[in-house]
Amino acid sequence: MDVRVVTKQMHAFLDYPVALSLLTVPFLLQLGSSNPLALWLAVGVGVAALVLTVLTDHHLGVVRVLPYGFHLAVDGAVGVVFVLAPFALSFSGIDAWYYWLNGAAVLIVVGLHKPEPALAQQAA
Predict the structure, then answer these.
(1) Half-sphere exposure (CA, 13 Å, Cβ side) for 118?
(2) Is the dihedral of CA 58, 64, 70, 71 positive or negative?
């Protein structure tokens, strides 16, 4: 049984709300008490995530110049950075938990990505 259930279409629908949450939730949670970077790292990644989503070649991409595989690789890298950031940047409390939980969520979504069938298989 294949547990990879997150399709390209599902992922595309998650991208915009996730980017917007990275831009707003850090302010609502008042991140930055242990290190101001805890606030601004999330906001910067939110801006980058919004740009990445707009430029990704999926049905909700606007310009569609970046391959979806590249998008997934960037998401995976962000997940790793978010998990490691509290250790590397001395985040504590809500700052650390915000990054650990978001990093884990991103890595789970990327890990559960369901590969699309090859074009040759689709034509058959």
Answers:
(1) 3
(2) negative
